[in-house]
Amino acid sequence: MSTLTTTPGSAAGDQLAAPAAAPANRPADRANPTRAVLMLEDGRSFVGEAYGAIGETFGEAVFCTGMTGYQETLSDPSFHGQIVIMTAPHIGNTGVNDADYESDRIQVAGFVVRDPARRPSSWRSRGSLDDELAAAGVVGISGIDTRALTRHLRERGAMRCAISSTLADDSAVNDPAAGDSAAGVDEGGQSAALAALLDRVRSSPEMVGADLAPVVSTPEPYVVPAASGTAQFKVAALDLGIKRATPAAMAALGCEVHVLPARTTGEELLALEPDGVFLSNGPGDPATADYAVEALRTVLRADVPVFGICFGHQLLARALGFETYKLTYGHRGVNQPVGDVATGRIAVTSQNHGFAVRAPLTGVTDTPFGRVVASHIGLNDEVVEGLECLDVPAFSVQFHPEAAPGPHDAANLFERFRDLMAAARQARAAVAGGES
């Protein structure tokens, strides 16, 4: 196992190279921009301008309500396979830099903005977002009504879509007055080229049933050392799509974090003799990750403290016997209010999930691992946002306590995990002392 000696929290310990000044796959003539179209699987289309790379891409259309943090959003592995729509109109103002990447590359399948900044201004910026997307081969679209698109997704639900900037011969796309259309092919409102694009959208993979955690997980284990240099606790972190800020947050509390591939078994986790096991965020359908659920059950039977966030929260729920389901349009943004059931306090949280846990909001539920309660509830739609086990040392939250981007209202949950590991260590010492 290699040891990461760069700044704690850098998932791969590498620096991203600055893109070329004028990527070949990006239109250079802004006076005559390449037209692009966004096609939803229900037949609605939006015509705008190419942004980033020229090409065609497919994914699940989702919207993010954050006004800031676009670079962290783009590089969050939880967005793998998704075309992200930013509801804030002005995106790209601060350009791009190396410090704000949450993984070693841009993860989104496509990017949608209304009014992109063409001249970024920031002392940290090393280039424009447009150039960065083009260099990474990420196809995007700009100049469309992103709020109308968001309203449509809120009413109809998240769905598959495509962005194409390759339909150069299609008059419906190249007409500057085309705007957006709600007409489907069956209504005669689309050209043959757009109808063919719609067919490709409808034949693209769905998010339900998608096993994506192994795709974005680290291929090899690595270690993020404690920030102080002296480790007080050893954490085995299952990388299901972990962000750099997450191990950094634990390292700042004196934890040596062993980041492990998604398919690491329970026996392999326990072989590290960790003080605690952490389950990260990640993309895809939690119902496909039975390998991680079985590993987690092995850990729970060993009474090792467990903390799960986002995708990891959903996997803990499934390990306990609860089901997960797909939300209509998901929670994505840095302004999601969550209520703490025990204290009554409200935290504004950073969230990025399209699936949720089906569990009782009130009362105690008996599971194969003892009693469980819902610890946090989403205030917008009463989604279960946290679980607490009363008989084994395990808890989880659906949101991101490390933020990146977003508020730090829930950062204390890492301290709670540290305290849980300390209590478990004391309990083991007491048992060992009683047996001697």
From TrEMBL:
Molecular function terms from GO: ATP binding; carbamoyl-phosphate synthase (glutamine-hydrolyzing) activity; glutaminase activity
- Domain of life assignment: Bacteria
Q: What is its EC number?
A: 6.3.5.5
Q: Which residues does the Swiss-Prot or TrEMBL record annotate as the active site? A: 310 (nucleophile), 400, 402
Keywords recorded for this protein, A-Z: Amino-acid biosynthesis, Arginine biosynthesis, ATP-binding, Glutamine amidotransferase, Ligase, Nucleotide-binding, Pyrimidine biosynthesis
Q: Which NCBIfam families match?
A: CPSaseIIsmall, PRK12838.1
- To which protein family does this belong? Belongs to the CarA family.
Quaternary data: Composed of two chains; the small (or glutamine) chain promotes the hydrolysis of glutamine to ammonia, which is used by the large (or ammonia) chain to synthesize carbamoyl phosphate. Tetramer of heterodimers (alpha,beta)4.
Can you name this protein?
A: Carbamoyl phosphate synthase small chain
Q: Which organism is it from?
A: Frankia torreyi
